[in-house]
Structures are given as C-alpha cells and as structure tokens.
Amino acid sequence: MKAFDETPISRNGKSLILAHDHGLEHGPTAFEGVEDRLDPETVFEMATHDAVTALAVQKGLAETYYPSYEDDVALLAKCNGTSSLWEGEPYSPRTWSVESAVETGADAIGYTVYPGTNREPEMFEEFRAVQERAREHDRPVAMWSYPRGQAIKEHRSPEVIAYAARIGLELGADIAKVKYPRSPEALAHAVDAAGDVRVVLSGGSKTSDYEFLSTVEAAMDAGAGGLAVGRNVWQRENPERILDALERVIFEGASADGAL
Predict the structure, then answer these.
(1) Average per-residue pLDDT in the chain?
(2) How far is it, in rounded angstroms, from Cα 218 to Cα 13?
(3) What superfamily in CATH does domain 4-252 come from?
(4) Shortest CA distance to 13 belongs to which of 26, 23, 21, 3?
(5) What does the pLDDT read at residue 222?
(6) What is the widest separation between alpha-carbon atoms in the chain?
(7) Which residues of 191-221 are buried (b: 16+ CB within 10 A; e: fewer)?
(8) Active site includes 206?
(9) Where is the active site (predicted)?
(10) What crossing angle do the helices spanning 184-193 and 158-171 adopt, rounded to 10°?
C-alpha cells in the first residue's frame, strides 16, 4: 500500500475528517437548531473547504450525493454503523462492502470497533475482513476505536484511551479515532501507544469556539494526527469560520487565540 502521506485524506501527514454519519448514529435530533443540515448537500458543500481532507458518510449519502462532489471532496466510506434506537450490547454491523465503497469512489475506508463488549471477538473478525479487503484496493483504513462494555468503568481514562489507540495499531488501521482523555499528557501516552498509526481526536458534542479549538490545539501539541469532527462544525451557525480556524490550528500550528 502507498504511504499514508501520499493518500488523498492526508495533508502534510495530518487529517481533518468531517463526519456526517450522525443521521444514522443519532437520528434527526442531532440536527435540532440547524434543521437545514438535515439536507446532506449542505454538509457536502462544507466538505469542499480547503481544510477538510475527507468526508466520512454512510453508503446512502455517498451513493446519492457524492457523484456531484467527487472532484472536490475525498470520500471516507463509513462501512458499519448502528442507530441510537438499538438498546442491546454495543455492536456496529457492516452496512457497506469495501468493493461497493470503492466503486462509489471511496478514497479511504472507515470502521467502528467497540473493544470490551461481549461482541468484541465478532467485531475484530469483521474488521479483519474489511482491513484486508481495503489493502487489496490500496485504501487506507480509519478505525473508530471506542471501548464500551460493563467492565469498563471510565471510557475516557488514560489507560483505556491508550489501549484504544493501540488496538488500532495491532489490528492494522492507519488511523485510530479516539475520544479525548481529558488531558494532553494522557493523549500523548495514547499517541505513543499507537506507534505509526495516526491518532485523530473525536470532535464530540458541540462546545464554544474557544473551548473546542483549545482542545484541538492541546491534541496537536500532544502529537495527534488531526481531527475527525461532525457536530462541532456543522451544528454551528458559521461552519466556514470554524473550519478556517481549524485549518490554522491543525495544519499551520496556530494557537486557539491566534486562530480566532
């Protein structure tokens, strides 16, 4: 496979992934206050911003909208997912084959794994099949590594987040998307644990501009390889302004103060 830095989803070794799989994962409630963003085309337009290195969406959105944006947007195909209506043991089934995603124009493959759940062995096996198929098509793989399960008392503890990042390395991902472990030191530990895998920060729920950018600044200083963000961009009244600021922080090394 080609070096990650040579793939379309990387810019100087870093990535800013705009995620828009929330219609499946969270439903229409995720769009309260920004109902116009229920129209996926509005977010595809955001993804044409120079700061965005990839747009992560599910199969239906990609098949319907991506043909109009394939010249301006790199597609990260999210190949599994589940709805918030599901109340059983955390599990994210496959929703899209790698072959179909590649035919649609995917530049990279994304897949969620929930380490620590009763279905961990099943999800690891499914990830293996997806990762190997992606390698056959010369596509990088991003793992959403989200520990869950009754045995895990604190999902954002330094030990758990470092383990989540390490699982990305052990199972063959190129990117490990993890939650922020609440301190730069803890994230730096996760980055070390991940070896050559790029650790990208999950954007999480919407916060203020300064709080959000300060967290991203701290993550980049800790060695993160970028950001995978949804609601902290497209839930804002002015998404372009926050994308401008993120470009300065992630790719130009600006501080949160400087970026704003």
Answers:
(1) 96
(2) 18
(3) Aldolase class I (3.20.20.70)
(4) 3
(5) 98
(6) 46
(7) bebbeebbbbbbbeebeebeebbbbbbbbbe
(8) no
(9) 146, 177
(10) 20
Return the pLDDT at 198.
98
Helix ranges, the chain (H): 22-25, 40-46, 59-65, 98-104, 120-136, 158-171, 184-193, 209-221, 231-234, 239-252, 256-259
Break the chain into its structural domains and give their ranges: 4-252
pLDDT score, position 134:
98
- For the chain, residues with pLDDT lower than 50 are none
CA dist., res. 109 & res. 106, Å (int): 7
Dig out the tokens for 33 from the structure: 């206050």
Residues 196 and 222: their CA atoms lie apart, in Å, by 15
Distances (CA, A) of 100 to 109, 252, 258: 11, 36, 43
Instruction: Note the pLDDT of residue 153.
Output: 85
Helix axes 120-136, 158-171, angle to 10 degrees: 40
Report helix, strand or coil for 63.
helix
Question: pLDDT value at position 223?
Answer: 98
Q: Which of 180, 200, 175 is nearest to 109 (CA)?
A: 175
Of 78, 177, 179, 180, which is the active-site residue?
177
The single residue of 66, 114, 146, 163 carrying the catalytic annotation is 146
For a pLDDT cut of 70, what percent of the chain falls above it? 100
The DSSP output letter for 157 is S
Question: In the annotation, is 65 catalytic?
Answer: no
